[in-house]
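As agreed, record passed on underneath.
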Amino acid sequence: MPSDIRRISTNSTWEPRVGYCRAVVASGWIFVSGTTGTDHETGAIPERVEDQCASALRIIEAALQEAGASLADVVRVRYILPDRADFEPCWPMLSAAFGGNPPAATMIQAGLIDPRHKIEIEVDARCPDAG
């Protein structure tokens, strides 16, 4: 395994079952896996899309912080939602999260691994010290 690759886990029950980690830091980049709003400690999934979005953003932000970055370093984001009508209620929260550093973005309508999930968010970020 190359020494410049670091893996970050959030101890989600899905990580070992599926065979992935929350984030990978490699060659100045941080790749954060698709993240839902599931509480990793309790397994609870909020009912409202806004609450799921907020939870997913917190999980992503924590992974980025562990990698030495922040939401301001995100350059690409992908939003996956089973129902595209659920996207608009999240816009104010997403706009606030990325503030003056909006990333390139894509919204995809697709089914998610658990039918209770209403949003999944995946980001790519540049390490601040990557130059």
